[in-house]
Fold this protein.
Amino acid sequence: MREKVEKERAEEEEWVPRTKLGMLVQSGEIKSIEEALRSRYPLKEYQIVETLLPDLSEEVLDINMVQRMTDSGRRVKFRVCVIVGNRDGYLGIGLGKDALVRNSITKAIRAAELSLTYIERGCGSWECDCKEKHSLPFKVVGKSGAVEITLKPAPKGLGLAAGDIPKKVLEFAGVEDIWAKTKGATRTTFNLAMATYDALRKTATIKTF
């Protein structure tokens, strides 16, 4: 066990890429996170994100204790939900589970970094014509489990008309003004955050003509 911990610490101190994308980033051929996400290679190493986006912030949204009965007795683990973002168009969300809270947070952060996606921002409200990237370019709907959220572009200065969890996710994505409407089991923090994330990432995948 001690050897495994020491090995993980050594890998964190000196990153040795194991994927083609990681090698391209370390060699300097890929110099931005935009290039990395648009490449044909999957994002499988969290060090890529930390190298290309050093100003990435993270925040714990929820910590839950999960109990499981086994032959040897009751086992307790902690499940943590974390969001990461640079507040300028890049956002990720992840879950981590471990017997220790600190390890759960670390796992959640790494999972969130690997789920990093680009969020297209704009000024899609008919009440505003400033052409600045303060809101979303069009209405999007996101779902996760029994939760559904609708995000509509809002005029500049309105702020984030949303609940606490969607508001935090929107802030990390760099969205300043929005109308939000939710329905379903919104008390489930992870599903509500995931629904918001699902809606936001559609801004970069939906094509408008």
